[in-house]
Every structure is written in C-alpha cells, then in structure tokens.
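As the next step, I selected for study a record pairing a protein sequence with its backbone structure tokens, which the following lines show:
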Amino acid sequence: MTKKFGIIGNPIKHSLSPILHNYWFKKYNIDAEYSIIDIKDSQLAEIIDKIKDKSLYGINITLPYKQKIVPYVDVLVNDAEKTSSVNTVYLDDQNTTIGENTDVFGLQAAYLKEVDNAQNKKALVIGAGGVSPSVILSLQKSGLTSISITNRTPEKCIFLKKKFKKLNIIEWKMLKTEIKNFDIIVNATSLGLKNGEDFDFEFETNKSNLIYIDTIYNPLETKTLKYLKNQNRKVFNGLEMFIYQGQKAFYLWNKINPEIDQRLLELLLSKLK
C-alpha cells in the first residue's frame, strides 16, 4: 500500500516539498507519495487523527500552523520541545504522535556553519512568527549570545522573550536605523514572498562582513537580498535551509538519510525560474 505524506500551511501552493520528497521516494524505491494538504485551523485535530490511523504516515507543517499544531501532538521532542514550534510529525512504535523541529538543523547545516567568532557577533531576527523560535535556537546553538528580535506586533516578541530570556527586543519603528548595528540579519517574515510585499526601505549598513539570511526561497532573490548582494554582502536565500530541513524530516519518517544530489538541485531550481 502506498504510504501518504504531506505538508499543511497557508499559503501553501508555493511549496516545493512535494517535489523534494517525491524525488527521494522515487530514488530510494519507496512506495509513497507526498502532496499539499490544504486545511483550515479547525482541521488540525483531524490531520493528527489521520496520522494515528495511518491514513497519513507523516506531515510537514509550515506557516501559520507551526505553533497551532502543538496542542494536538502527543509529545514534543528535541528542538520542538525547546522552541514549542513543530514542522514535522510522525507516529512512533507506541502509536504516539511525535512533534519534531527540523528547521533548527536546516538553518545550522545551510548557513550558520559560515559564522566564525560567533560569540562576538550580534544577530537580528526580523519577525516573530512560526520559524522565529527555530532561528533563535539555531543562532544560540552556533554560539551567538547577542540576539535581538523585532516584529510589527510587539506582543509576539514579548512571548518569545519568555522562552529565550536573553533575547533583546527592538521596536519595529526603529528597525531602519538599528540595522547598521548587526553582523547577522535573518528575515523570518513572509516579506518578499512571491507576489507579496517586501520591506519598504533599503537595508543600509557599513558592515562589510554582514551575513543576511532570508528564510524565503520563492523567489530565490527577494528585493532586499538582491540589494545587499549588489552591495557585496554575504547573502543566503532559504533554499538550502528548506532542503536540509526536508532531509532530516525524510530521515525521521524513513530512516534513510537521502542524498542531496545535483539532479535534485537542478530540479528544484527549475521550478523557481
């Protein structure tokens, strides 16, 4: 019987997860299929029930459900427990639904290995949504101790500070002037997402060693990323993070660590042109 997997979120049509996982299912001769699952908030419990009765063998979760799914999962483990943010769910041998977070691994594997002398660097996380706790934890795991956050609605920042005690909060209205003080900036908002709005100002900074990370991968280059790239700053889009978090999720479901080969990269890039 073909095992079914999928991803839930909203908006979700832009996701490349089906292409990623179906490529690996075919490569490793696994009888499974992965699809987009379009749901409403009221259907979260139903989705978890489908995992319990094995109508689904696993799901990925993207915005806006990474925190909303938490009450419906039996157990949070590892980075999911530390962040209260879940992007992967599966069923264990005891018929228990497990919530895991592979975004933290994805960020570290893709970008944060690039950071040296981390303890002396200052990082800014823009946005306090679903992926933000994962960004903060991955920065901490990479050795950064000075981490700030800003968000249009400050209440979400205050909530995150309860979990990450040393987090500094910057008012959104101060973002434009404060940007110049940071060595690492991570855009954890949906600003720049395909066909959506972008930041309404340019990121002016005189730090020649600035690292800018965009968690968005569609488009490959947002307006802000392109601007900083033209200023000869080190920039990363969200594609590598996406691939690495997917690699770990695939392993959790199938106990196979799939190869990230050139053919896969070319396939994904072809869908983003």
